[in-house]
Amino acid sequence: MKILGVIPARYQSSRFPGKSLVIINGSSMIERVYHQAQKAVLLDEVIVATDDRRIFDHVQAFGGKAMMTSADHESGTDRCAEVARQMEEFEIVINIQGDEPFILPTQIDLLVKHLKFEANLDISTLAKKISDEEELFNPNVVKVVFDLNGKALYFSRHPIPYLKNADRKDWLLQGEHYKHIGMYGFKSSILKQLSTLKAGRYYRMESLEQLKWLENGYSIRVEMTDQETLGIDTPEDLDRALDYMRDREKGVD
């Protein structure tokens, strides 16, 4: 079973245009993501999927593999699906976020683990327990609830589950809440189907593509990680990433 890691990377970003090419301590963000993905034990190949010649040329310049894809895709998932259709030899595709320069190879391998051995599993993703109240009530932090077997029940920008008999300030003490980390593993055959789905009602309400998959009956396995991710969506996020690197070099947690 061959496993492909795809890093979707577009140049035009409403909040941070060109972020894939920003330099973080001597290396571009996309180069950092690429080299971290290459360290994953279970990936057979890594490729950047982009709609921009500047990113394509940059990836080739540092020795990476890249593919030009359509500029019309609405999501990274759709871009990954285009790659999957052109690289039929891969049975599992991992969607690796191009704005996560500190992604851990072990997290990528975690996405692969159950997909590789469970025939009835369609999609895998990651979650981390929330310990910060600001995160819990931040609508930009997606929350997830799942059943006893780790299958996702729902994703929301609102804190879920709702604690009816507890004050808001006590929610983290009296309940368990989990942050969704937006990396995905797909059976290649499933990924191709997902890109053809129409937007469902919950997707339209919350603007979360994984709700479209759940609405259409696909199963999503939620794997637990205790490692934080540090995505870069804005210039302010980049400043935090640089601070993070400086602290790490100094040995500060």
Describe this structure as you would to a colleague:
The protein is an alpha/beta fold. It has a single domain (3-250), classed as Spore Coat Polysaccharide Biosynthesis Protein SpsA, Chain A, CATH 3.90.550.10. 34% of the residues lie in helices and 22% in strands. The protein is built from ten helices and eleven strands. The strands form two sheets. Strands 1, 4, 5, 6, 7, 8, 9, 10 and 11 form a nine-stranded mixed beta sheet that branches. A two-stranded antiparallel sheet has the order 2-3. Strand 8 and strand 9 form a beta hairpin. Helix 3 (76-86) crosses helix 7 (188-194). The model has no long low-confidence stretch (mean pLDDT 90).
Provide the CATH top-level class.
Alpha Beta
Domain count: the total is 1
Named CATH architecture: Alpha-Beta Complex
The name of the CATH topology is: Spore Coat Polysaccharide Biosynthesis Protein SpsA, Chain A
Radius of gyration: 18 Å
Could you tell me the strand content as a percent range?
A: 15-25%
Fraction of helical residues:
25-40%
Counting H and I runs of at least 4 residues, what is the number of helices? 10
Concise description?
This protein has 253 residues and is an alpha/beta fold. 34% of the residues lie in helices and 22% in strands. It has a single domain (3-250), classed as Spore Coat Polysaccharide Biosynthesis Protein SpsA, Chain A (Alpha-Beta Complex).
